[in-house]
Amino acid sequence: MRVIRIALLFTLCTSPLPVHAADEELATVGSLRPVPLDSVGGTISVITREQIERRGQPLVADLLREIPGVAVSRTGPVGGLTQVRIRGAEGNHTLVLIDGIEANDPAADSEFNFNSLMTSSIERIEVLRGPHSALYGTDSIGGVINIVTREADGPGLGGDLELEGGSFYTGRVATSISGGTETARLFASGAYLRTHGVNAAQVGTEDDGYANISVTTKGSWTPDERLRLDAVFRWEDDESQDDQTGFGSPPAVFDALNRSDPRQIYGRLQGEVEVLDD
């Protein structure tokens, strides 16, 4: 797909937002609390925000294809069922955490569908390979994919805007804004991806398109040095089209107006209090 990318960055504060390099050396998955990456008793691959922006992939599934031991399979065009398998295990043996929320769908045999997860609001992706059911249960026999969304880095106000366009009438817009004070911070982002797609049927001219809207809001409040409150809300709504698969070898595909319109909502409210000697 031919893609034209335009990225704009504006900062409304007097000083740039700080980047905490030390956070990149910690692993937040595979142990009960963040520990140095090299001390985790397992194999972890990390994709940072800088790498996500440099690779320019709109969907998380396309980033995971580059991780050793991870297999990504998608049924049909963009928007189809997208499964991620780690070290040969099944898709429902991969546990997906989004800001600490277990996102696997109990109605889909405890499997997470990666078809609509976009990269625009993601700060970091950690892929822990191998069995770690002692911490996370049987859903993590293959491994764990821990996704951490972006948050406001410091006081002041800043934001960014990204536009993309390409073939098959494909377009994407993503924007975010963040700001706050020494005690309260808020980050909000939104992204919209749409493509007319292609026609997978042998006969007919009806294209199978895809559209996706994602909104993420994340905030924190620290009224006291020993008390911290965090909240995150994520909303995704996507619409995908596909054709009808018949019988035969290989099976024939016929033009159809099949349409899927799922919606996913995640939320979490967390309080942390430090007592005694931390």
Can you describe this structure?
The chain contains three helices and 17 strands. The chain is mostly beta strands. The strands form four sheets. Strands 1, 11, 12, 13, 14, 15, 16 and 17 form an eight-stranded antiparallel sheet that branches. A five-stranded mixed sheet has the order 4-9-10-7-8. Strands 2-3 form a two-stranded antiparallel sheet. A hairpin with a 7-residue loop joins strand 15 and strand 16.
Report the order of strands and helices: EEEEHHEEEEEHEEEEEEEE
Q: What is the radius of gyration?
A: 20 Å
How many DSSP-defined strands? 17
The DSSP helix count reads 3
**What gap, in angstroms, lies between the N and C termini?**
52 Å
Question: How would the blueprint of this fold be written?
Answer:
Elements: E1 3-11, E2 26-27, E3 35-36, E4 43-48, H1 49-55, H2 60-64, E5 70-74, E6 82-86, E7 94-98, E8 101-102, E9 122-129, H3 133-136, E10 143-149, E11 156-166, E12 170-180, E13 184-198, E14 208-224, E15 227-245, E16 253-260, E17 263-273
Parallel strand pairs: 7-10
Antiparallel strand pairs: 1-11, 2-3, 4-9, 5-6, 7-8, 9-10, 11-12, 12-13, 13-14, 14-15, 15-16, 15-17
